[in-house]
Amino acid sequence: MSNGKVTVRPATEQDLGQINDIYNRYVVETHFTFDLEPMTLEARREWFGHYDTTGRYQVRVGVSDASVIGYASSSRWRPKPAYETSVETSIYLAPDAVGRGTGTRLYEELFKQLQREDLHRAYAGIALPNQASIALHERLGFKRVAHFTEQGRKFDRYWDVGWYEKALGGS
What are the phi and psi torsion angles at 89 (to 5°)? Predict the structure, then answer.
């Protein structure tokens, strides 16, 4: 990533290839996502069909020098109707974007957009260890509310997951 300015905007279908490349690096190289196989572009398009540019479920991208360098999303937390005021958030950055404030910018813009929605809580699951993600989430007002031990298995070992919660909607 150059020193170019980062612009945060709603994701478009044209961004999906770059979004997928960023995500699949995490699938192959890290325990940060519990997907075991890279996501196909077809699966990514299906995933994107659950989002809109407004509403509860959104994807925001960070763009620098015409390249997507990261994305943040708000997704359905659980399928039962009473959970509709809760979302799960995720964020993934290209390697060169880590530690440059891009994650903060992406989340700040996502949460700014979500203020317009009837939302009460945001949740984020962080596969541990991942100090950078913990620091980002805590900086943005998330608090750890649960620690699940050995919740997922990847790379022939079990990983713990910390669950973080953020109050939304001024409540």
Answer: -110, 150
Would the pTM count as exceeding 0.70?
yes
Total residue length of the chain: 171
Q: What are phi and psi of 120, to 5 degrees?
A: -115, -35
Give the Cβ contact number of residue 128 at 10 Å.
Answer: 18
What burial class does residue 154 get, using C-beta atoms within 10 Å of its C-beta: 0-12 exposed, 13-18 middle, 19+ buried?
Answer: middle
What pLDDT, in 10s, does the model give residues 111-130? 999 999 999 999 999 999 99
User: Within a 13 Å sphere around the CA of 121, how many CA atoms are in the beta-carbon half?
Assistant: 13
Asked if the model's pLDDT at residue 2 lies above 50, the reply is: no
Q: What Å distances lie between residue 129 and 32, 133, 135, 165, CA to CA?
A: 9, 9, 12, 18
Q: Are 44 and 19 in contact (CB under 8 A)?
A: yes
Residue 129 DSSP label: S
Domains and CATH numbers, the chain: 6-120 (3.40.630.30)
Rounded Cα–Cα distance for residues 72 and 80 (Å): 23
